[in-house]
Amino acid sequence: MIVVKMGGSDGVNLEAVCADIATLVGAGEQIVLVHGGSHETNLISEKLGVPPRFVTSPSGHASRYTDRQTLEILVMVEAGRINKRIVERLQQSGVNAIGLSGLDGRLLEAKRKETLPIVEHGKRKVLHGEYSGQIERVNISLLRMLLETGYVPVVAPLAISHRHEALNVDGDRVAAAIGSALNAQVVVILSNVPGLLKDPTNEASLISQVPLSQAQEYLERFAQGRMKRKMLGAIDALKSGVKRVMIADGRVEHPLQRALAGWGTVIE
What is the domain-level CATH number for residue 78? Predict the structure, then answer.
């Protein structure tokens, strides 16, 4: 069992990822693909006159402020346009993919964060009307039913609250939660960088190995921007029973096969 998170940043090689999934599924692997969509969502938000707003938490983590209008754009772009594009490409590669979001069949249940504490211009503030959440439950029986009948689930990072509201959830944490729930051997996070870097401006400064016992230290010393979320997702997955997490380059040829062969940052 392999859980793959394909980042939503510009540059990730969708064709190559789909080709690798086809090869692995043909060899008998079961795969769940989680995808992002941040880059395309930002572009469409701008065109719709609703520019994205990114905020920083008191602990230094950046995230998208998701009010109801932003949430509806996320549903349209990530669960619609992007999800179905990926399903189409996988079907063209011979993979019987099925697209869904965490809303469908209550695949992902999450606790809503109705307020969002942030730091802006050095001052602490609280934003209200937030529609993001923290995943609390994965519908394992639904995923297993799909996998056992030969489907490859393609999951958009949305969840449903206990009050039946759609919520935005972090894709890396989705991959971690699904990997943990399914006891996956490995979670692979494909991004537009080679992995965790000592110097974010120098791709040659790749950190190839991170033991779980030092992962929090590496996160605080080296991770910047979205890499913080990826490291948090990796730590979540490993603490919940996943044996290995790979953060690897999704821009190259054979990105998934290269990651599984150890190209990238291995956290275990």
Answer: 3.40.1160.10
DSSP-derived secondary structure letter, 143: H
Residue 152 parent element (H or E): strand 152-156
> 226-257, pLDDT tens digit by residue?
898 899 989 989 998 899 999 999 999 999 99
On the CB side of 89, how many CA atoms lie within 13 Å of its CA?
A: 16
Distance between CA atoms of residues 195 and 208, nearest Å: 8
Rounded to 10 deg, the angle between the 83-92 and 14-26 helix axes is 50
Which residue in this structure is represented by tokens 């979670």? 187
Is residue 268 a part of any domain in this protein?
no
Distance, in Å, from the CA atom of 182 to the CA atom of 119, rounded to the nearest integer, reads 36
Domain count for the chain, please give it: 1
Model confidence over 151-177: pLDDT tens digits?
999 999 999 999 999 999 999 999 999
